[in-house]
Amino acid sequence: MLFSVDTDNRRDAPRSMAESPLGLWASSANFVHLFLALGVVLRLRQYFFNRSLWLDESLLVLNLISRTPSELLKPLGYHQGAPLGFLMLEKTVMRFLGSGEMALRLIPLVAGIASLFLFAAAARRLVAPEAVPIAVGLFSICGPLIYYSSEAKQYSSDVAVTLVLLLAASRMSVGENTATRAVALSIIAGLAIWFSQPAAFVVAAIGIVWLWVGIGKRDKSFPVGWVFFAIVTCLSFGAYYLISLRSLARDEWLMGYWNGAFAPLPLSISRVRWFVNAWLGMCDNPVGLTFAGIATAAAIFGAREIFREHSEKLLLLTLPILLALLASALHRYPFRGRLLLFAVSFVLLLIGAGLGAIQTKTRSVLPGFGTLIVILLFFHPLEDAAETLRKPHFVEEIRPVIEYVQKHRTEGDILYCYYDAEPALKYYTFEGKIVSMPRIVGVESREDWAKYRRELDQLRGNPRVWILFSHVYRDGGVDEERLFLDYLDSMGTRLDSVQASGAAAYLYDLSGKQRPH
C-alpha cells in the first residue's frame, strides 16, 4: 500500500501487553469503545448546554444571516474567512432548522462526533495496536476538540476533513487498482479543499508522499495517477484561492490580529525560541496537554517508532504541520491556537505511538513506568472532561443579559452598546431576544480614552440608559468596563445591573436630577 500497514498481523496486542490486567484491558477494543462513547457524551453535553454566541461566532453568523448563498462567494464582512463548503452546509441547515444557536452548531457537532470514529479508524491503520487505545483516549477527551464541536465556526470540520483525507490516503495502493483509487483520492482531495482551508496542507503532503513512494518503489503505473491527482488538486486549490483565499491574504486587520503567529525568517539561533514556544503553545492549545515535556518526548519516541516501521507514514503525519509552518513563515497561515486544530490528530497519533512503545519496551525493565507516564498525560484532560460533564465551557453569556434588559426595559429607554458587544446584540435582535430600541454603538478608542468620555457625555439628560458590555478589553492593567463605569458613576446614578460570564448590563439615570435616598 502507499502508506502500508500490515493490519492483519497487528489486530491483537503483543503477548507481553497482557501481563497485567490493566494492560490487557487497556489494549482491548473495550477501552477504545469506552473512550469513543465518552467522547460522544462530552460533545453532546457541551452542545446541549446551548451557550450564548460569543463575538467570534457572531461575526461569522451575521454573514450567514445577511447573505444569500451566491453572496457568500464574495469576501465575507467583519474580517471573517471560512471554507465555502462549510458556509453552504451552514446555510442549508439554517434553511430547514432556522438560525438558533443549536442549529448553527449542528454541523460542527456532527463533524466532532464523526471525527471520533474517523480517528479511531486512522489509528488502527497507522499506529501499533498498543498505541491505539492511548491515542483514541487522548483524542476523545481533548478539551479543545470537545469545545469546538459546539462552536459555530469551521474548526471542528477541519478535523473531520483532515481525517477523511488521512484515511483515503492510507487506502491508496501502489500497483493495485491504482487508476480507480487514484481517481477516488483525487476527487476527495479536490473537494476537501473547499470544505477546509488547512486541508490544502494535508493534500499537498499526500501528493509529496505519493511521489516519494512511487519513485522509491519504481512503480510504472504511479505517474499517471499522481499526475491526475496533481492536476485535480491544483486546479481546485487555484479556483478556491481566487474566489476566497486571495482576499483573506490581503486583509491587513487579520495580519495584525495574528501578529506573532508567523514563523520568523530568516532562521537564526536567536529565533529558535519562537519555534520552541510555538510547539509548547500547540501542546497546550489545541492539543490540550499540560505536561508538554512528556508529550514532546512521547511524540519524538513515537516518530522514531513509526519511521522504523514505515517512513512514509511518518511523512504523512508530519508534513502537514511542516507545510503549515512554511505557510506561516510566508505570512499566509497563522501558526497558533484554533487554526492548528486540524493538526491535533497528527500530534496525538505520534504521542500515542510513543507512549505505546514506551509501555512495551519498559515493562520488563521498569514495571509500571510506562503506565505512570500515560496516567500523567491523561490526568488533566480527564479532569477537564469531568468538569465539562459537570459544567460545560462557555465564553460570553450575553444572551441572558440581553433577555434581562428586554424584560426590565421601559418605554423611552436608551441602549449604549460597547463596541465589541454589537455583533452579538445584532444577532440576538435578529433572533427576537430583544426588541429594537434607541441605541448608540460605541467605537474602539483604546489610544484615546477622552473619546469614550465624549461618547458617554452624549447620554446626559436621559433618565434611563442601559450600558451593555461583552468581550471587554482587559489588558496591560486596563479594564475598559471599569473605566466606563467609573465615569458613568460620576455622571449619574446606577439603578440596576445584571452580570454573567463575559457580559454585563447596567441601568443608569443620567438626567442629572438628584434622586431621593
Commentary on this structure:
With 517 residues, the chain is an alpha/beta fold. It has 2 domains: 365 residues, no CATH class; 112 residues. Helix content is 60%, strand content 6%. It contains 22 helices and 7 strands. The strands form 2 sheets. Strands 2-1-3-7-6 form a 5-stranded mixed β-sheet, sandwiched between helices. A hairpin with a 2-residue loop joins strand 6 and strand 7. It is globular and about 85 Å long. The protein starts with 20 loop residues before the first helix and ends in an 8-residue tail after the last strand. 43% of the residues are buried.
Fold topology:
Layout: H1 21-26, H2 29-48, H3 55-66, H4 84-97, H5 101-104, H6 106-126, H7 132-140, H8 143-148, H9 155-170, H10 178-195, H11 199-217, H12 222-249, H13 252-257, H14 272-284, H15 292-309, H16 311-329, H17 344-362, H18 369-390, H19 398-408, E1 414-417, H20 422-430, E2 439-441, H21 449-457, E3 465-470, E4 474-475, E5 478-479, H22 480-491, E6 493-500, E7 503-509
Parallel strand pairs: 1-2, 1-3
Antiparallel strand pairs: 3-7, 4-5, 6-7
